[in-house]
Design goal:
Helix content is 45%, strand content 22%. By secondary structure, the chain is of the alpha+beta class. The chain has 3 domains: 6-111, Alpha-Beta Plaits (2-Layer Sandwich); 149-255, Chitinase A, domain 3 (Roll); 270-441, Trigger factor, C-terminal domain (Trigger factor, domain 2, Orthogonal Bundle). Strands 7, 8, 9, 10 and 11 form a 5-stranded antiparallel beta sheet that branches. The protein has a 4-stranded antiparallel beta sheet with strand order 1-2-4-3. A two-stranded antiparallel ribbon has the order 5-12. The radius of gyration is 34 Å and the shape is extended. It starts with 5 loop residues before the first strand and ends in a 6-residue tail after the last helix.
């Protein structure tokens, strides 16, 4: 039996559930008899253990199971009778003062909120747009060339020349050096290496180190002071000044492949046609641009929906999402090779993100329900096929998604979000926001 629903707060409710003790005892005895058929105890054959011993061994466990089942069933029935949409799980606590022959529990829980979405025609949304021009294709080709760079010893004649008359180390060259560092005349751990290679100008080494190597020829040495930053990863030397000596062992110049048929073939263009190569690169860039502009536009839509919507967010759902975010972070870091076994993950670090995710989820659910924006099978298929286009064997990718219901559900969620975005764009005040290609791709520093 459940009492009437008490309102404790905007979303918090409480129901008192009362169970007759005789019903509980009868169900416990019934389950113990079933358990007795297979129960084992020293000195008795299986199934022949006296009920008294069975009750001693399993009584508490069975009673807990019975109470959980009966309270859970009563709670679900009460929620259904009162048309309550329960958010999260109820908190069940024993209640004192129950009538004789009864046992009572308080079930405290939250309900889903009413979501009020304002006038979408008053919403201002920025739609991000970007273009792929010949300049972007050229930049991409340069990046692809750099990824295929190979090095030759300066001064040695080869198929691609000797690198020029100047055999000293310059930016872009790969140098191999021996070095030793000392602090107060004493070598320190990690401060010495033989045949250590790096490319000058890439910033892998501290500025003083690169500056000292610049201009050296094979066999030449240089001694110089090097100050480690206060936040240097090596704590033993952070903030200290060392004296380094480097000796140049090898200087190699970089040769980038020519943009020719062989280069095109290395990118998967079977006949080496350069025009096809550029078309292929443009198609890939446009696919990437489309994804990024859609993502930025979606963020603008979601920000606008949050501003125009009114709702209270259940704490229980936020707590559940915090747990999910913590676990996702833990798994991601573990996959990156980090030891997260004893690493703390304070929940408050994820609270704001979880609150936003839950809030948006409730808003989107309301929009989908009231405007029939569910993802259709045709939309899901089209999205999967679009994903597949960037792979060598698109049909295998399609099979991959359709072979697992969870993977397909992820695609459905993306389509649903896109349906919401398109619906809002059709109602809101939309302004196109042009973004430079480099800014969109986060490559401004490379340009």
């Amino acid at each position: 039996m459940a009492t009437a629903v008490e309102t404790l707060d905007k979303l918090e409710r409480r129901i008192t559930i009362t169970l007759p003790l005789d019903d509980v005892k009868a169900e416990v005895e019934k389950r113990l008899k079933v358990r007795a058929r297979t129960a084992k105890a020293p000195g008795f054959r299986p199934g022949k253990v006296p009920m008294k011993l069975v009750a001693q061994q399993y009584g508490y466990q069975v009673e807990t199971e019975v109470l959980n089942d009966k309270v859970g069933r009563a709670f679900n029935e009460a929620a259904a009778e009162n048309n309550l949409r329960v958010a999260g799980f109820p908190r069940i606590e024993p209640k004192s003062g129950a009538a004789e022959g009864s046992i009572a529990f308080d079930a405290t829980f939250e309900i889903y909120p009413d979501v009020k979405i304002g006038d979408l025609s008053s919403v201002e949304v920025e739609k991000t747009v970007a273009q792929v021009s010949d300049a972007e294709i050229d930049k991409t080709i340069d990046i692809l060339r750099k990824q295929r760079v190979h090095f030759h010893v300066k001064g040695e004649q080869g198929a691609h020349g000797d690198g020029g008359a100047d055999t000293s180390a310059q930016n872009g060259d790969r140098v191999t050096v021996d070095f030793v560092g000392k602090i107060d005349g004493v070598e320190f751990q990690g401060g010495k290496a033989d045949n250590y290679s790096f490319v000058l100008g890439e910033g892998r080494m501290l500025p003083e180190f690169e500056a000292a190597a610049l201009g050296l020829k094979v066999g030449e040495s240089k001694t110089f002071p090097l100050s480690f930053p206060e936040d240097y990863h090596g704590k033993d030397v952070a903030g200290k000044t060392a004296e380094f000596t480097i000796t140049m062992k090898k200087v190699e110049w970089a040769h980038m492949p020519e943009v020719d048929a062989e280069f095109a073939k290395s990118l998967g263009i079977a006949d080496g046609d350069l025009a096809k190569m550029r078309e292929d690169i443009k198609a890939n860039l446009e696919r990437e641009v489309k994804g990024r502009t859609k993502s930025k536009t979606k963020d603008s839509v979601m920000d606008a929906l949050i501003k125009v919507s009114e709702l209270d967010v259940p704490k229980a759902l936020i707590e559940q999402d915090v747990e999910r975010l913590v676990e996702m972070t833990r798994q991601d870091m573990a996959q990156r090779g980090m030891n997260v076994k004893d690493m703390p993950f304070p929940p408050e670090l994820f609270s704001a993100q979880a609150e936003r995710r839950v809030r948006l989820g409730l808003i989107l659910a309301e929009l989908v329900k009231t405007n029939n924006l569910q993802a259709t099978a045709e939309q899901v298929k089209a999205q999967v096929e679009e994903f597949a286009q960037s792979y060598e064997d698109p049909q295998q990718v399609v099979k991959y998604y359709y072979a697992d219901r969870r993977r397909l559900a992820e695609v459905e969620a993306l389509v649903l979000e896109e349906n919401v975005v398109n619906y809002v764009l059709g109602k809101a005040k939309v302004t196109d926001k042009s973004v430079a290609f480099d800014e969109l791709m986060g490559t401004g520093a490379q340009a």
